[in-house]
């Protein structure tokens, strides 16, 4: 079972305030004691705290109740009751907290240490000593504590990353992430190997760890045509790309397709193709995924994008394959989208691509810099 959970519902209840006490001062050699009831303690709050060391909402899946402690009642000798202990829950950065009943977005946790009180504890009641007046010197009553707040909540996680990986199943996204970061996603030669999003921290080539030049890359499960309608894994994980600054779209020519084009055999890989374009139409693969992206979010589809032709070490140098690559490059040139050549497995072209991504991310962080005017070498100086 996967340990990655990005949607949970839970019940949150703050602590009730403690009741005020009705008590009297009774001491030797004191003729008139008077009221001495202490106040009740306040109930604990329910608090969410952003933590960059937490990467999933798994804990809430198996413990869907978050309840703070009640305040203690007041005591004699004007002693107040103890405050109830807060219920503090750590959540990953990128967690959105919704009221499950109304759908209202209550908070978006995006920074380490960010705190949000989702339910406030009830106030403790006053003891009877609070109500003593010259005309009412012996009040025989106290205030009860107030009830703490409660809510049904829905938590939704959207991963925080600088670069988001796009591609059909088996495009080599996981291999690329494993090559450029310390992340170790499962890698296998079949579709939907990646079932949950993966995050990796990428150090910019030519820089030391002390310089801190790095960015975060997110790999989501591969999409197929019809994902927006629920085919394959659907678009459930596309929400994890909504916060990224730059999209990296990996397009690949599978070896078995290239070989099939040479020997005339039929291989059903699930890639977009038809009788007129054939299985090696990379433009159609690219545009098919772009359509799924646009159906999910126009804003996401408008993010800056780089396209890399992956698995170039496996590309068969036959006329059909080369023509498909040239057609894709010409198509992207008209759109003003860069096409880079890459082999995630062999490492070819990786450093050049990372420099491009780093510069693009830095450009997006600086609004005054246009998205088409960046120099990777200058960004490292």
CATH-derived topology of the largest domain: Rossmann fold
Main β-sheet, spatial strand arrangement: 10-11-9-12-13-14
* CATH class (first level) name of the largest domain: Alpha Beta
CA radius of gyration is: 30 Å
Distance between the termini: 45 Å
| Overall mean pLDDT | 79
What about the largest sheet?
6 strands, mixed
| Helical run tally | 8
Question: For the record, what is the CATH homologous superfamily label of the largest domain?
Answer: P-loop containing nucleotide triphosphate hydrolases
Give the total of beta strands.
14
| Helix/strand/pairing category | alpha/beta
Tell me which oligomeric state these chains represent: single chain
Proportion of beta-strand residues: 15-25%
Secondary-structure element pattern, one letter each = EEHEEEEEEEHEEEHHHEHEHH
Using the alpha-carbon principal axes, give the shape: rod-shaped
CATH architecture of the largest domain: 3-Layer(aba) Sandwich
Description:
This protein has 381 residues and is of the alpha/beta class. It has 2 domains: 1-157, GTP1/OBG domain (Spo0b-associated Gtp-binding Protein, Chain: A, Distorted Sandwich), CATH 2.70.210.12; 163-379, Rossmann fold. 20% of the residues lie in helices and 20% in strands. It has 8 helices and 14 strands. It has a 6-stranded mixed β-sheet, with helices on both faces. Helix 6 links the parallel strand 13 (305-310) and strand 14 (339-341). The longest helix is centred in the C-terminal third of the chain and has 17 residues, at 319-335. It is rod-shaped. The two termini are 45 Å apart.
């Amino acid at each position: 079972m996967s340990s990655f959970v990005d949607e949970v519902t839970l019940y949150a209840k703050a602590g009730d305030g403690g009741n005020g006490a009705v008590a009297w001062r009774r001491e030797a050699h004191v003729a008139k004691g008077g009221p001495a009831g202490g106040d009740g303690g306040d109930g604990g709050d329910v608090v969410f705290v952003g933590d960059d060391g937490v990467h999933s909402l798994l804990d809430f899946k198996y413990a869907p109740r978050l309840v703070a402690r009640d305040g203690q009642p007041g005591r004699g000798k004007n002693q107040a009751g103890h405050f109830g202990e807060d219920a503090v829950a750590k959540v990953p950065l990128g967690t959105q907290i919704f009221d499950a009943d109304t759908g209202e977005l209550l908070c978006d946790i995006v920074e380490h240490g960010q705190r949000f009180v989702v339910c406030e504890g009830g106030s403790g009641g006053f003891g009877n000593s609070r109500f003593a007046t010259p005309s009412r010197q012996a009040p025989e009553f106290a205030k009860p504590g107030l009830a703490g707040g409660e809510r049904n909540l829905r938590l939704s996680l959207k991963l925080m990353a600088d670069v988001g990986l796009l591609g059909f199943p088996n495009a080599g996204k996981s291999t690329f992430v494993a090559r450029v970061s310390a992340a170790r996603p499962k890698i296998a030669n079949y579709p939907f190997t990646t079932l949950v999003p993966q995050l990796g921290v990428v150090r910019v080539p030519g820089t030391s760890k002390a310089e801190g030049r790095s960015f975060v890359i997110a790999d989501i499960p591969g999409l197929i045509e019809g994902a927006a309608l629920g085919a394959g894994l659907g678009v459930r994980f596309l929400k994890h790309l909504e916060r990224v600054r730059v999209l990296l779209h990996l397009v690949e020519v599978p070896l078995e397709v290239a070989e099939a084009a040479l020997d005339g055999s039929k291989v059903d890989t699930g890639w977009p193709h038809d009788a007129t374009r054939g299985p090696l139409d990379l433009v159609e693969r690219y545009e098919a995924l772009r359509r799924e992206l646009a159906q999910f979010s126009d804003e996401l589809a408008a993010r800056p994008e780089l396209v890399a032709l992956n698995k170039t070490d496996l590309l068969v140098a036959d006329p059909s394959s080369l023509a498909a690559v040239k057609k894709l490059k010409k198509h992207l040139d008209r759109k003003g989208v860069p096409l880079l050549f890459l082999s995630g497995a062999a490492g070819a072209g990786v450093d050049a691509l990372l420099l491009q991504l780093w510069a693009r991310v830095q450009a997006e962080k600086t609004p005054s810099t246009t998205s088409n005017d960046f120099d990777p070498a200058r960004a490292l100086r």
